[in-house]
Design brief:
Length: about 450
Amino acid sequence: MRFTDSAIRGLKPKDAKYFIHGDMSNERHGFAICIYPASTKYPAGTKSWFFIYRFEGKRCFMPLGKYPTLSLADASREFERLWSIFASGKNPAAVEADEQAAQEAAPTVKTLALDYIKRHAEVNKKSWLEDQRILEKEILGMKAEGQRQAGAVDWSKRKAADITKRDVVILLDKIVDRGSPGTANNTFKIIRKMFNWACNKSILETSPCDRVEMPAPMVAKDRALNADEIKTLWNSLNDKTISMRLEIRQMLKLILITAQRPAEVSGIHTREIDGEWWNIPAERSKNGKAHRVYLSGLARGIIDEAILNVKRLREIPMDQVYCGFIFPCPHRNKDKSIERHALSRALKRNESPDGNTTLGVATWTPHDLRRTAATMMSELKFMDEIIDAVLNHAKQGVIATYNRNKYDTEKQAALEAWERKLIAITTAKDLSNVISIQARKAA
């Protein structure tokens, strides 16, 4: 029979199923359609395409799909593909089974992301939790706080090998369009690293991120707040009517006072506090070097206030010594600290409608507070080498090899001078009396 749609529609069911073969005038035999009678499995007249062939002396019936769901044209193309496999001397059914098994064994994006976090990011990156958060939120469809944005991307069940360059571009454009160009850039960096890692491990042949450009212009990170902005911000953080948890306010203040990284402040633990010093262990510092931070009176006051707040929330007797995270996670695992990204989310909630100001100050980030403190210490005439010691920047070159000075005395002097200037700024006192010890020595 020469297959046409009208001829196929005209095939009627009989008492038993039967096969009609297509045009057998050429060598490509075996293209057939089966018409089923009424049964519990199929309604009467159900039609299915088959490739019927003989392999190693055995007659094989390979289903291609039901008509009209699988059209005549598509069924013909599938038959031609399978005939080519058969003509090469292979069993099409076995080849299909092998390909199906390989497809089922191929990792989903969720499996790949979890593997990347466990085997690469967690082992090699201090910021692996941020990688995990970005992947969970932006490509795996996992909810964080609140509801996901409408139309959010969810690649979790898709095969990693099926993700295309176009998929990546659409994902990044959606993030930019919701007003988060910085997040789009960070997401791209992380998924590019994940797919490149998969290629290096021979999990994937190619990366869909190849030749994809950064979705948004890279902005130089040089924002530092001036004195007026610091005063406005400090007053805003003291305003109990703003939509921000007490712990977040305390963390932001502590970043500004100590000049330490947001992730280091959010993860601070009571066992790291030794009197007037905060000892950040190597495993928590960005450069892998243990670091001592002098705690000024302002810093110690915020830490004491935060510990009292934890005791109140957990109903711990005030005379009992508390041991744990100073800013513990209030929602989920109480043996975890508040994560660094909670700071950025809190600032986002307090942006002006046009996105140009946050808490009354031209838009800024938590890390800008660290840069602000460093800038202010520079204005107080402290040497770059001392400011780098406060910031725990890695020493370079010959200095890294030979200079083992920990600068505790100098760090204390710098942070005490910065505290005095900060108090003067926030209380509108005369700044002319805020002179660093270094400046006095130089006089």
